[in-house]
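Appendix B, record 7
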Amino acid sequence: MFAFILKRMAAALPVMAVVAAVVFAILRLTPGDPAAILAGDSATPEQLDAIRKNLGLDEPIYMQFLHWIGQLLQGDFGTSLLSGTPVVEMIGQRMGPSIALCISTIIVAIVVAIPLGVLAAWRQGKLLDRMVMAASVLGFSIPVFVTGYVLILAFSLGLGWFPVQGYKPLEEGVLPFLRSITLPTLALSTVYIALIARITRTSVIEVMNEDFIRTARAKGLGERSVLLGHALRNAAVPIVTIIGVGVAMLIGGVVVTESVFNLPGLGRLVVEAVLARDYPVIQGLILLFALVYVLINLVVDVSYTVFDPRIRY
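Structure tokens (predicted):
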């Protein structure tokens, strides 16, 4: 297992190198001049040239790339062109709301979706199954930002139960933190609840038709024991896979959700950096997201051995 993990981590290095090269090329080919944004509309050509020289943007692109790669190899993600703050420091300052939103979303999605999927499989073809499947189609079809604005309209502007926007860290109290994170979590989790519930239902239905399930029933086991003790565990591999995919997809969802609810997380930082053409920040964030994606896939692969002893690495 340890050798497998090392091999996967080694295989991730060329992937990260390709991501770094592609991201750098795309950003440099995208129209827009960070120096013009920094200098403002009244800047003279001399001032723009001075800013480009100071930021190193007047160098050939391949020299900029080599300089950036050299920084990365030393663990330095660079410095923001706008604020002059190290990118690592900016990511650390904005990481809290994004981590809180991702963790709460996954917890809510797993706690709600897996029981719904199991119940739908158990009542296959019945009213409950149809209701769960209809709700999952609805949840998967509605964009996150639409769900977010509907929740704000109903629970913030209508009932006044939650703040419209903003984030309160846990250090300021559990209740303010929960009030600030509840609506973003609900908005973002609807998609994942729908996705995980459908996969859970399909996987459990397939397992319920296996011979060992009939054997378990023939031995007199109750339906609850058959479902939870036999069917769910054997259906776990595709469920774990889709949860891993869902966690990776959260990166895109977080960008939208944080923008809707004005949460000062990494998603908002991405938007701000893109609008300002802040190359080092964008590059650092995309590399971070790619690394998280690689690690999530590794964790999912390793977790297969827990649920299915036949899988060995």
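Remarks on this record: The longest helix spans residues 87-122. The radius of gyration is 24 Å.
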